[in-house]
Amino acid sequence: MNIKQAKQEITNTLRAYLTRDELGNYLIPSVRQRPVLLMGPPGIGKTQIMEQIAAETGVGLVSYTITHHTRQSAMGLPFIEKRTYGGEEFSVTEYTMSEILGAVYHLMESTGKKEGILFLDEINCVSETLAPMMLQFLQCKTFGNQRLPEGWLIVAAGNPPEYNRSVREFDVVTLDRVKRIDVTEDFSVWKEYALRSGLHGAVISYLDIRKEDFYRVETTVDGIQFVTARGWEDLSEMIYAYERLGLRVDRDVVGQYLQMPRIAKDFANYLELYYKYQRTYHVEEVLQGTWQAVNASELGAAPFDEKLSVMGLLLSRLNEMARNTRYQDELTAALHGALTTFKEKIVDQTPDQVLKLLLWQRREALKQAKEAGHQGKEARSRAQREIQVLEDYRQRLTAEEITNAETAMDRVRTWFREEVEKRQTLGDDTGRCFDNAFRFLEAAVGQGQELVIFVTEITAGYNTSWFVEEFGCDAYFRHNRDLLFDDTRHRLREEIAAAKAAEEELR
Question: Is the pLDDT of residue 492 over 60?
Fold first, then answer.
């Protein structure tokens, strides 16, 4: 299955394991709660889906790359304890708490989350001395004489032998005690993630054209060469950073992330073309509606790959603007909730005291989310923006020496309206850019298949589809309606043709 399906299956497994009966006991006893063994190529998002599952289900997450551990850190250190058996005293070996189990208990204490996921990466690459301990843990959920708390799902991830020479095969006894999920790379699923996360437009549009270059692992005379989803994402981050610094991303930089020379060279050349198209077609002018007719004519006469690249440029900017609008929408909603509480609390406390309390609660929630393993960049950024705005409100009230509850509420309402207006301004500006992009493409390619692709990409993109749903876009709805009509007409033609063929056979 692909990584999206694997995520859903693990989520379902977690929910099943944490379901309790009418007496409060786990519906599936702990002894029958098999660990999940997630097997798949490196760099396809196995670790990331664990963070997403934990955040979405509200459980804790403890992650370990098991190859970084020794037998002692995993099992604990031995010490001698005195025990009396049958009236005679004996020296017996006990163990300090396992570092891994200790991390689970620490998270439970620091966050109050009693249920969670223990994620052990590279499980089949452990050292020879640690391997027996890990097999025991998968089978019995214990290290030495210490047991993993109830309510914790073990998810172990590994790579198939063709991707790692140091892997160890699991025996039948172990495999018969785990729930195995095999994951394969899938560009369409990764693209959904890439669009939502805002990966660089050059990466997405290149892979749209060269889907076969998304994930490759080859053994050559020069050694193993590979390109992974992780490599593309990390390269995207570096491209953004280099652009901000005014630096050039050349073939050498690309090759540090895409460790397959042919693909690295191909993408580096494409990136140069991407920047060239950006300059040639004046993408920002297109979005602002000030493009020249000659640019539309040039695009109309350009090769199909070039058209796709230019559409990729437009979609990348539209996705970025839609994402910024969504962020502001979420910030506005969060601030509305905070200010509702502010209004209720300032009856009994000073405005400064209430804002300090709200800030403390949100900082603690952010800290606990980090400790619980909910490290999503988007959620963290959203929380930080809310904290920043609330702190700004507090400082402004202090600077203006406002202590009266009614006056403070009036001032905060005024500042909050600025955030609401910013949301509307972003929505209006983004909407105009959507309309201008459609106008430009209509002038360049008419009602060709390129517009079908453009509409489909907007529908598939998390941020762009959210924007259209929330703010509307007449051009999108018009073309989408035409597309649906064409699909229906095509389907009816096929059905009529099939009916005619069946009638001929009966004759």
Answer: no
